[in-house]
Amino acid sequence: MAKIISSGFVVQCMDGKFLLGRTSKKNDQYCWTIFKGGTMENESLIETAIRELKEESGIDIAKDDRLNKNISTNYIHNYSIKDKNIYVFMLVDREGALDDFQFFCNSYYGTNNDPEIVEYRKFDLSEMHNYIFPSQRGLLDVLKRIEASKVSNNEPILYYANPNAIVTIETKE
Q1: Which of 85-89, 102-106, 132-136, 164-168 has the lowest mean pLDDT?
Q2: Strand partners of residue 115
Q3: Residue 47: enclosing H or E segment and its boundaries?
Q4: What is the rounded distance in angstroms from the CA atom of residue 103 to the CA atom of residue 1?
């Protein structure tokens, strides 16, 4: 059986904290997640990540130049669980676009049509281990390396081909 391909974003806010969503699929301490989901036919990994971020948080990178110029051009982490391969990109809000943003979820599941994400919260990297899904904890080591790589202007030295380039993204509405 072929593995499901999934991709998404880890979001770092201007204050350095990371935005996670609490899923309604589980009701325990480790129910916080990055924003991700399965690819659709003929959809690239980055297109999937952008669509899932919009569906699960309301963040529309394609329509906000303050955000779309600050995404990783390659995935920063990948991992496998059960029947899935997951690829994670990074969005860094360098201009405070998300400071007063009203997050919302337009993605539903199950017979009750429950929203996938029911709460949003920013976490320090040091506390994420206590909340994020265990399967996503490998991402924390990557984020620690990225944080350690920042130079004096607070820019990561890896993962961004051109931090001033605006990514042109065509979305399928």
Answers
A1: 164-168
A2: 108
A3: helix 45-57
A4: 36
Residue with tokens 């996938």: 116
Give me the residue label for tokens 């029947």: 83
Q: What is the DSSP letter of 132?
A: B
DSSP state of 3: P
Instruction: Judge contact between 19 and 127, C-beta under 8 A.
Output: no
pTM: 0.85
- C-alpha to C-alpha distances, 95 to 74, 78, 92, nearest whole angstrom: 21, 27, 9
Both tokens of 112, joined, read: 């009750």
> Domains in the chain, start-ordered, CATH in brackets?
4-149 (3.90.79.10)
DSSP state of 152: T
Q: Is 62 helix (H, G, I), strand (E, B) or coil?
A: helix
